[in-house]
Specification:
The protein has 524 residues and is mainly alpha-helical. It is 69% helix and 4% strand. Helix 3 runs antiparallel to helix 21, helix 10 runs antiparallel to helix 11 and helix 18 runs antiparallel to helix 22. It is globular.
Length: 524
């Protein structure tokens, strides 16, 4: 093994060979405490990679469908039945409070119903760090399911109770659940996964959210639940997924790293590892226990927000995580879906056909996202992120240019549609999946929950900014509203090129020293 693969520190190494697994044990200098500590890195020679056990598979898919998909569902379901819900709100307020809403007042109420979800998401993200260390990764998953279920009940009965307040409260609760999910679910999945499968499990949350948006759009169509009489069924239908996916939750393991490093429960961590890896994977379990022991001895068990924000060694990785999360929202994906219907109409499609074409764009987004687990397992993070961000920057610039001159040539609308589809396709190569789990690969266990919470908070805050500012900017700038999104993608390319170390297949203890010197770090 290359001695430099562990870091840029001086090392003395010797090797052990348990049943074909080559484990290199070395001494490195801890970049925060300025003392030598042991570290390990593993190179598998004759020993096969850890298998996908039945329990790991069950948790991965149940957590994705039961927690990540409802996040996307609550985002995608809100648009199509908007006029019916607004009419019901006006009627309800008139009957209950004798309040005759003006058009502007009704628009403000609807904006509040939509945005309270984003506010809840930001609050849930901010509380994710505390909750992850207080209740555990699995505990946060269960709390999210409970909040999603209560929200669905509120949605279903708000029309029967003729209560706008129940609708608003339901949106707040699912927002809290969504923020908690995006902050803690990638952490949970990557911490129960073997190192070889961290990227694959980490991308499950991104795929689930993307799929949930499409499912929400489908169930809110007029041909299904998107009518004046059935919209509350559309809002609450995801509870079917909650009931199915949370039934086996009693079998789910807690994160072994959380138990070992945060709680100090050595036996509990070994027990959960045995359930995840199998009783015959003794060498793999022992190696993972050794890794956790070294990290537990070298670091404090948990880190507060203040200590993480004040630590100069964590400044650069924290900036990377927040910029990736925020940049994902500011890269234009939501604006593309907001604007695509009108573009399809300019291409000659009817309003109904344009809505179906928009759904097709969502399906393309979902289909491409399924490439994520395959790509994350086989391709390094840096080239994927640079490729995705640079291609998307080019497509966004082209969309702005074509839209501005769309009346000049009859074939411009079709070129614009091709650019939109191309942007959606290449977005899922890096910009879509990588921000969700990059924090778990840059941060060790102690500061990880804070970093994931800050990244998720950045995502929800930028999502809120886009939702509030995009319509006004569109009216003011027209087609050029897409240029800032193109610039954002270009800046993400530069941030990745100069400051993101390669993290695939590397333990966070190897990556952390590479970014510990802030913007003076040499990460290539």
């Amino acid at each position: 093994m290359d001695r430099n693969s562990i870091g840029h520190h001086n090392e003395e190494s010797h090797q052990l060979y348990p049943k074909g697994e080559k484990i290199e044990i070395s001494v490195r200098n801890d970049h925060r405490s300025n003392r030598d500590i042991p570290s390990t890195s593993t190179k598998v020679t004759n020993l096969e990679k850890p298998r996908w056990g039945k329990l790991l598979t069950l948790v991965g898919y149940a957590a994705t469908f039961g927690s990540a998909v409802p996040v996307g569902y609550c985002i995608g379901v809100i648009n199509s039945p908007a006029n019916y819900v607004k009419a019901w709100c006006a009627q309800s307020l008139l009957e209950r409070y004798d309040a005759n809403m003006t058009t502007s007042g009704l628009d403000l109420l609807w904006a509040s119903i939509v945005s309270i979800f984003l506010v809840g998401g930001a609050v849930g993200s901010l509380g994710g760090a505390w909750a992850a260390n207080k209740f555990g990764r699995k505990g946060c998953f269960l709390i999210s399911g409970f909040l999603f279920a209560i929200g669905a009940i509120m949605f279903f009965f708000c029309r029967m109770a003729n209560s706008v307040e129940m609708l608003i409260l339901g949106r707040l609760l699912v927002g809290l659940a969504s923020g908690l999910t995006t902050a803690t679910l990638p952490m949970y999945l990557t911490e129960i996964a073997p190192l070889a499968w961290v990227g694959t499990l980490g991308v499950f949350c991104a795929v689930g959210v993307t799929g949930g948006v499409v499912v929400g759009q489908v169930f809110s169509l007029r041909d299904i639940f998107g009518t004046a009489e059935l919209w509350h069924y559309a809002f609450s239908f995801y509870i079917v997924l909650i009931c199915i996916c949370y039934l086996p939750a009693y079998m789910f393991p807690e994160s072994p790293k959380f138990l070992y490093i945060v709680k100090g429960d050595r036996e509990g961590a070994r027990r959960e590892l045995t359930r995840l890896r199998g009783k015959d994977a003794v060498d793999i379990i022992n190696h993972e226990i050794e890794e956790m022991e070294l990290e537990a001895n070298a670091k404090v068990q948990t880190r507060s927000f203040g200590s993480v924000l004040k630590d100069p060694a964590l400044l650069l990785p924290l900036i990377i995580v927040c910029c990736f999360h925020g940049g994902q929202q500011l890269s234009g994906i939501n604006a593309i879906f907001y604007y695509s219907v009108s573009i399809f109409e300019k291409a000659g499609l009817s309003t109904t056909d344009a809505e179906w074409a928009n759904l097709g764009a969502g399906c393309l987004n979902l289909a491409t996202s399924f490439l994520g687990p395959l790509l994350m397992a086989r391709v390094n993070r840096r080239p994927l992120m640079m490729f995705s961000s640079s291609i998307c920057a080019g497509f966004l610039f082209t969309i702005a240019f074509i839209l501005y001159y769309i009346e000049k040539a009859s074939w411009f609308p079709m070129v614009c549609i091709v650019c939109i589809m191309g942007y959606i396709f290449f977005y899922q190569f890096g910009l879509g999946p990588i921000p969700y789990f990059i924090g778990t690969e840059l941060f060790e266990v102690a500061p990880r929950s804070v970093a994931m919470s800050m990244g998720s908070l950045s995502s929800w805050a930028c999502n809120f900014i886009i939702g509030m500012a995009f319509p006004s900017l569109q009216n003011a700038w027209g087609a050029f509203v897409f240029l800032p999104f193109s610039v954002t993608c270009a800046l993400l390319f530069l941030l990745t090129k100069f400051y993101l170390p390669e993290t695939r297949g590397r333990d966070p203890s190897e990556v952390a020293p590479l970014v510990s010197k802030g913007f003076r770090s040499k990460v290539k």
